[in-house]
Amino acid sequence: MVLSEISSKEFRDMVRIASHRMSKNVQFVNDLNVFPVPDGDTGTNMNLTMESGAKAVSENASSSVGDLTESLAKGMLMGARGNSGVITSQLFRGFYKATQGKTTLNAQELANAFSNGVATAYKAVMKPVEGTILTVARVGAQAGANKANETDDVEEVMQAIVEGAKEALKSTPDLLPVLKQVGVVDSGGQGLVFIYEGFLEGLLGENIDDKYVPDADDMNSLINATHHQAVQGQLATSDIANGYCTEIMVDLKADVPNKKPFDLEEFRSYLSELGDSLLAVSDGEIAKVHVHTEYPGKVFLYGSQFGQLGKIKIDNMRIQHETIVDNEQEQQESVDFAVIAVASGNGVRKLFESEGVNRIISGGQTMNPSTQDIMDAITKSGAKQAIILPNNGNIIMSAKQAAEVAEIPVGIVPSKTIQQGLTAMLAFNPEASVDANVEAMTDELGSVKSGEVTRATRDTEINGVEIHKGNFIGIVEGTIVVDDVDPIVATVAMIEKMLDEDSEIVTVMYGSDATEEEAQAVVDRLEAAHEDDDCEFEIYDGGQPVYNFLISVE
Q1: pLDDT recorded at residue 245
Q2: DSSP run (H or E) holding 509
Q3: How far is CA 26 from CA 53, 270, 311, 350, 507, in A?
Q4: Fewer CB atoms near the end CB (10 Å): N or C, the chain?
Q5: Is the torsion defined by CA of 395, 491, 37, 544 positive or negative?
Q6: Is the pTM of this model over 0.70?
Q7: Which residues pair with 388 in a beta bridge?
């Protein structure tokens, strides 16, 4: 039987199941990230973006598909996180533009909507790269357009879009050598395929396992009680030892590779070592977990040994707490010109504040703030104009989207690291215009070299460097240059590669997983090796997560 059009009912099902399918596969998408560092958040970002759009659709009672696509686009725009989330939101912004005012969608209109989404997304990216989510979207849309010339059946068109997207996904390693080198497909493209597959399932009316649907009211009440115990109103953000509120559901009936037998007490015992405020329950078929931890990835990996992960959820309680503190500060002095920076770690925050930053958005690697988060910071600043320092390449697009919808002039300085952001602040002039400041501060970005040291999350080889899971890797301007079992050795070796005859100041910021003694050991070795050089070394307690050391060389 031919389905000639999509009504509001079918579209609601498409969005709901697409969001559900994306949420089931968050960790799978995260694991596809190429770099073996703890920044595998593509799946998390796409899921949060899709969830925001799905929520907006569920709250719209209209019987017009055009109205629902508008809600989807707006919800995804405000919930967009990271480059993958922003690009996904742009795909559906274009989708909405092609469907506004339409009560239903026929096959040709559906194909046109996907094609318009691709055109909008490509325009949003300054330098589109093939072999990414853009390729998957483009080839999928083209397949749908071709099928729409042959049939009036919307199901066949959606099927063609899914098959085209899958074929494009398979080709991404051939278009991006780094993907082939590591042996994975593009993570954002894979996430988009999951969303498109959910659209198809919703259109076909296929049933999904309701056990994955998060409706555990009893669990929620326990979680709320636990939060009241764990985070007191007077607690300082820096005192939150385990910052990520992590929840998972595990389908214990599902088959997974190397599946282990499930024992609830053993399950609880292991998870209790990863954090606090643990709640773990099971009815023999589904296990539900809530825990406050610094290592949500370990919770996911452990749970996945016993079955298929269903709902997963991560909340950064440090961000939540800082938001509460901000909201309690009712009498805030408005400023004419606000500088807003994204950063994590008390020491890093203090450095930015000492350089004149008015407001800090907690976030960065592994937890990208959404467009809405950045918008809220702009609004709360009370300023007449603002500058944003994203300090992470994966946040720049969200910042640009926030600037586009802000009611005041907002400029973006495209800082990709904390080190660049701090250096850019040296050129900030509160008496100058937004455009003049953006130009001057952007010019400063090239005057600093940025290095980071963290632990590798997988075994691989990139750019001739053999990387071992658990070792410490040094990353200079986005390129892994060092791997070593010792953090001090790795850091010294990385800094040596950053130094040249013009280097004058080396700044070492140690994070929450490092110590001042380790930082001093790094500096001692470098000073001994460069005692005849005119180079100064400075040490700061950054307190940043993820990275043992952040290094700047100027």
Answers
A1: 78
A2: strand 505-510
A3: 16, 22, 9, 34, 36
A4: N
A5: negative
A6: no
A7: 340, 412
